[in-house]
Amino acid sequence: MRMFLVTFYKVVCDDTGHERRTLQHQALVPADSPSAALSAGQALFCEANAIVDWRLRADACEATAVQEARGRAGSSARATSWSMI
């Protein structure tokens, strides 16, 4: 089972009127697929915020597969992103 970092963002306007994505929440979840990671992350987000739908507090979420590269110490991690808007 792979580990995914599920990240939730909210789009807000700054003082100049430009839209910015702001980080709302992150969760590290074990899952077999990106869609399963999104579902698990959404359930955790709802539970943490005591809401029934994650879209009440965030505009987008994405799952990034996190795998540690095998081999030498200090090697970089590989990541693949999946988004849901």
What are the SSEs and their pairings?
Elements: E1 2-13, E2 19-31, H1 34-49, E3 60-67, E4 78-84
Antiparallel strand pairs: 1-2, 1-3, 3-4
Kindly describe this structure.
With 85 residues, the chain is of the alpha+beta class. It is built from 1 helix and 4 strands, in the order E-E-H-E-E. It has a 4-stranded antiparallel sheet, covered by helices on one side.
User: For the CA atoms, what is the radius of gyration?
Assistant: 15 Å
Shape: globular
Helix/strand-derived category reads alpha+beta
Strand content: over 45%
Question: What's the short story on this structure?
Answer:
The chain is of the alpha+beta class and 85 residues long. The chain has one helix spanning 34-49, and strands at 2-13, 19-31, 60-67, 78-84. The radius of gyration is 15 Å and the shape is globular.
Give descriptors for this structure.
85 residues; alpha+beta; four-stranded antiparallel β-sheet; 1 helix; 4 strands
